[in-house]
Design goal:
heterotetramer, A: alpha+beta, 2 domains, B: Rossmann fold, 7 helices, binds adenosine-5'-triphosphate, binds magnesium ion
């Protein structure tokens, strides 16, 4: 690749600037759509992953445990790698809680002479490691500890959540893959059609004695230029879009305010453009037969 | 330089050339004539490997064209300068770049290219049009760019297909003089033409094709 | 438009079938992506709309109402256009309910001598008409009715849900609009680039004395053919995709099993293709100047 | 039929035609000659309204070309048959369809078109190539298709730009005979050519252009 090739590619671009501009815009739009899709799925993924955050177990304690026993138990539970936090809820706390939840019928509890509710630990689990199987295992371990009366956790609920998370992730990915393949194909087609008209030019170059790479290089450079510029355009458009999007909807919906626009897109979009432009041009030219 | 042995070319069942046999020696200048559709262009295309024969063998500079490896074809073609009947100018390049193409392909340096191209354009009277795109040239001017492109690399073999179809008598004779010059410097020249003025009185060999067959060989 | 034009368009298509096939595929893919996006947003929309379905009010009744009064009240509430169903919950039912919810601490209630809980109506609202303002209005009306002691409903919760629904819908639509504009543009570009090469042909037709419409019609027909075929392809692909998608994920997630693929797409996709192909060709040809 | 009054055409500051004044009567046959780049094609383009003059007035069949409404241009052009120097064949249409185009545009019926087209193709010796695409024609065959397309609608005015550049002597004379025939039937014929054999001894008017100016008017 010489300076000549670069100049030749550039002059080609300039001579037909409108159609190349249109191709570049089209590439930008395609990649923009892709990045919007990507960010959407990415955020669904994050959101889904955060669902089990509030998942916790309630460990009911036997009555009459000593403060020592209690601390030992708390330590033992907290030491498990799944557990993020253990909070003690005393018998009184539990009654207060019940009283609150009976709002409007508090007088129900007025007749009580002693507090029948047990003290308990609320065990919060680490979000990332919440797995139905391992949670089941943990529950079994805790139940067998001294001082533990019973343990309650939403087994079914957990299973349900897990299932939803998986579905959201897998279907999101399927979705994204369809979107990606579609956009790739459309962008590729645009480059391919753009170069289809060049069959004559390629033929002439061949007849003049040009080798395959001499012919290809200017076209590949054109493809790469379209792709990279398109990718950069898509990047700018994406950031602008998400900025406006978050400004518009983020205020009323915290989930959107914290929406992640992965910075890997900074490099990925122009790279994707480069890849599409390059392979698009390469395939569009096809095998150069002499 | 060129050896055709019993060469035939059939397009979709229609024979364009039938059993052509002829020789052209190195440094020779030779004319091909014949009515429209007789097969002149096809004969030239066989030489620069744009089409392949259905029968017979063709040898160019000692190289059989049917046994050549695909990778060698560009190098075979670089020995040959072609004035295409349909011009084949690249619309996206200026006159200068169209002419320079023949040298770019051979990997020459910018300065050398500039000198050779400007000199050749001057030869065909188009120096002042070097920065113009082909679409704003007259028919005869376009034809002269094609001639310049075929000449600029000083090929071993020059094939000119109806090179004066769009040129007036004076310019035609000027072009013929250029062809004779390059021939005098050792290039084998093969001209397919209807223009009898090009070979009349030249005492060069003139092959006459008729309906794809070699009908007559004469001296012009 | 004569038979000639149709034949001429068809022969044009056939002569360059590969590039037209590619364009058509690209159009199909573009519309497919669009329809996938559309169905996704559409289902989010439906899902969001169904959120308030379970929304209900609890109307506490004064003690000692006669069966007659109760029926009259029930009728009056049920007559409201927002209300879909009114269910009577007796004092005993209420106590049973509480007992159930105190699972594990039922003995709390053992000491009660009389049932302090009031009878109530559970008022289910029609899903479509749930609007915070009108629900507030309804609550006020019910509260003023004879025999009603108090009324409870999740005012805040309702507001929250409404907000989420709006956000999901608006952001979904913004999203879809971006996707749509993008795909439209890319498809248009593809048609435009395809026709760009025809400048020569158009020029020749002009010089032969053809009028603007004589020149345009075959190109428009080509554009329409590409668009409609592309749309039909997109339709087939969409139905196939959703069929597989639902089969794959629907079993484990009922929401997906009931996923709605609106049948309006049947006509909309080829129509969208027709529109894009037609306007793409029209704009690609531009104003024909003599 | 054609009236040029002091017509000039300037391309990007470069004058292609300078103050051309001439008349061509209805039913006349008239030649335009001159070296490559003299402005012959430009003169013809002015007549069929492919370019517009920068100065002077042109009147075709009583119609001033600069005052014509855009919507009328197609109808002006339908009076004129043009043999383009660069052929302008549509690559996606067969020989038949390329020729028929001139009639399709005028809205003729299929049967009528078929008869006229086949007759005209026979005239130029290409009846047997009617279903072929232009790319598989020889240069001279393509040129004859262009001629057929210009003739088929029996225009009031025939403009032929270098119509025999790719044709041998015999075929050229055959084409000239056809032009004379159509001229005899009342069509005004204007031929731009380098081929002196076309007008030599014809006793028709020959306009000679040189560097954009009318240098000489003669009888062939
Ligand atoms: N579109 C254009 N833009 C700029 N210059 C042009 C254009 N068309 C023609 N010219 C110039 O105008 C001059 C006359 O061109 P024209 O085509 O009329 O010549 P011609 O007499 O037909 O020549 P030939 O015999 O070679 O066909 C030439 O110098 C040409 O380069
Ligand atoms: N690609 C092709 N496919 C089919 N037939 C072809 C093809 N190229 C040429 N022919 C036919 O082969 C015959 C010879 O063509 P060729 O171009 O060699 O003629 P030519 O002698 O150069 O004629 P001209 O003087 O008109 O240029 C013609 O009848 C032509 O129609
Ligand atoms: Mg030929
Ligand atoms: Mg000319």
């Amino acid at each position: 690749m010489s300076l000549y090739h670069a100049k030749s590619a550039l002059s080609g671009l300039w001579k037909e600037k409108w159609i190349y501009l249109l191709s570049t815009l089209s590439m930008a739009v395609g990649l923009f759509v892709m990045s919007v899709g990507f960010v959407a799925v990415y955020n669904m993924h994050i959101l889904a992953r955060e669902l089990p955050e509030k998942f916790s177990m309630t460990v009911y304690l036997k009555d009459g445990l000593s403060a020592d026993d209690m601390n030992r138990l708390k330590g033992a539970i907290g030491a498990d790698r799944l557990v993020s936090k253990v909070t003690y809820i005393s018998k009184d706390d539990a009654l207060d809680e019940l009283r609150k939840s009976l709002k409007g019928s508090e007088n129900l509890l007025d007749g009580l002479d002693n507090n029948p509710l047990p003290a308990s630990f609320e065990v919060k689990l680490k979000r990332k490691s919440v797995e139905p199987a391992s949670v089941g295992q943990l529950a079994k371990e805790i139940r067998s500890m001294q001082g533990v009366d019973d343990i309650q956790y939403g087994q079914e609920f957990l299973d349900q959540i897990q299932k939803i998370v998986r579905i959201v992730q897998t279907s999101g990915l399927t979705f994204l893959a369809a979107l990606l393949a579609g956009v790739l194909f459309v962008c590729y087609t645009s480059v391919k059609i753009l170069f289809y008209r060049k069959a004559d030019e390629v033929e002439t170059l061949k007849l003049l004695g040009a080798t395959g790479w001499f012919i290809r290089v200017p076209f590949l450079l054109e493809g790469v230029a379209i792709g990279v510029l398109g990718g950069a355009g898509a990047l700018a458009a994406s950031f602008a879009f998400f900025k406006v999007f978050i400004a518009r909807f983020g205020a009323s919906m915290p989930v959107l305010a914290n929406m992640a626009v992965p910075s890997v897109m900074l490099a990925a979009l122009p790279l994707a453009g480069l890849f599409i432009g390059f392979t698009g041009a390469l395939i569009a030219l096809g095998r150069i037969r002499f | 330089m060129i050896r055709f042995e019993n060469v035939s070319k059939i397009y979709d069942k229609h024979p364009a050339l039938k059993g052509i046999t002829f020789l052209a020696g190195k440094g020779e200048m030779l004319f091909i004539t014949g009515p429209s559709g007789a097969g002149k262009s096809t004969l030239l295309k066989l030489i620069y490997h744009a089409v392949e024969p259905d029968e017979g063998t063709i040898t160019i500079a000692g190289q059989g064209t049917s046994t050549i490896r695909a990778g060698q074809i560009p190098y075979l073609r670089r020995m040959i300068g072609v004035v295409f009947q349909d011009f084949r100018l690249l619309t996206r390049r200026t006159v200068f770049e169209n002419t320079a193409l023949a040298l770019r392909i051979r990997g020459l340096g910018d300065q050398e290219i500039k000198n050779s191209v400007m000199e050749t354009l001057k030869l065909v009277g188009l120096r002042h049009k070097s920065d113009v795109y082909p679409e704003s040239l007259s028919g005869g001017e376009q034809q002269r760019v094609v001639i310049a492109r075929a000449l600029v690399a000083e090929p071993m073999l020059l094939l000119a297909d109806e090179p004066t179809g769009n040129l007036d008598q004076d310019t035609s004779m000027e072009i013929l003089r250029i062809f004779k010059d390059i021939n005098a410097r050792g290039t084998t020249v093969l001209i397919a033409t209807h223009n009898t003025a090009l070979y009349a009185g030249s005492s060069k060999r003139v092959l006459r094709l008729e309906e794809g067959a070699l009908a007559r060989e004469d001296l012009g």
